[in-house]
Predict the 3D structure of the following.
Amino acid sequence: MNTADLEVCNFSVNIWALFFIVCVLMMILPNMMEKKNICGIKYGRFLSREYRTIFGFKVNFLLSIMAVIQCLYSISLFIYQELNDWMNVVLWVNIIILLYYFVFFIIIKNPRVKREIYKTHFLGLYFESEEIPVLNSDLVTNMCNGSCSDKILANEIIEFFDVVSPKTVRAFEESFGPTARLYSRTKNIKRYYNKHIKNNPYDYSTTSGLNPISYEFFLMFQNSNQQTTWALEILGLFNNDYTKGYSDQRIDNLIRLMAHINKYGNDSILCSNEFLSQLTVYLIEAIKGEPHFDMISYREVKEIFLLKEVFCYIITSLSEKEDKTFYESAVSLNDQLHTCKGYIGHFDYKKYIGDIMKVIYKENNKTTKQFSEKVLEDYKTLYTTQLMEISY
């Protein structure tokens, strides 16, 4: 072999060795991508350790195979000092694959990887079963039967939503909003459940055709340190334009949210004047709305249940902390439930005042006692005035 041939051989060996190093770097690089995440799940770490290609192989496994091939070809070329045409083809295929992987998986967040992250961490938390719902709020709102799986919501996701920012708010809507992927019932989703959960996905269908607030949201909510923020965000997503003209659906959403707050609420939402003020707006709008013709018989039960949950939240909050501002907001809420003609909703308030007062009348401290007496006194004043007008 002359000097020129030797230089060509060495150059080829260097090229193959270079691509071996590139393959190794491609395996390491995703783990260094700390800033890219999807709902707290590190995109790069998931890509390198868990993501599988369309052939079912993990990305790092394929890159390892490519690196081994590059290494063997480099050694072979150095020994035999020649490069076959088919080896050239393999080289160019590897170049194309690595370039495609670098651009469409590392530089940008690949939509396919993003979907897999959602499937892996959000799907399978709840599934279809014959078990009757445990919470009374789910029974009142006619939620379908189902079960919670042993799968848990990743700590990274909960920690991600504990830091409120424009980024987390956008991710929240995408994860738990009315059009979230967890409501999807495509064949692909059903195959995923059959393969990994061994059951059908939970059925979120309702008579209105609208999606209810998901159990996946409530699972995140009960572990969150930002309950006020996410309670208001979920109401903003489900009880505004999405349910316009569907007051029954709005009441269902409020019932289930308030029931979960009363069961799992922490210091971040108890005595939150911000939450109570906004809740009053959503509550009044929902109660004033006319029920659908096939929901009239259920409306009375639902409204009573909702008011009891709301007043339970108020009394629990006032028991925890004697807050003057919160107390005034609670009084304002009670005032807005009535006009000079009586209760603004769709049931006989006089008939159920006893049940409501059982929830309200607490003497845990000065403020709870004051609120209980205020509600009862307002009720007596309102309906005594009505009786006097009737008698005249």
Observations:
- The chain has two domains: 3-108, 123-391.
- The longest strand covers residues 37-38.
- The two ends are 123 Å apart (CA to CA).
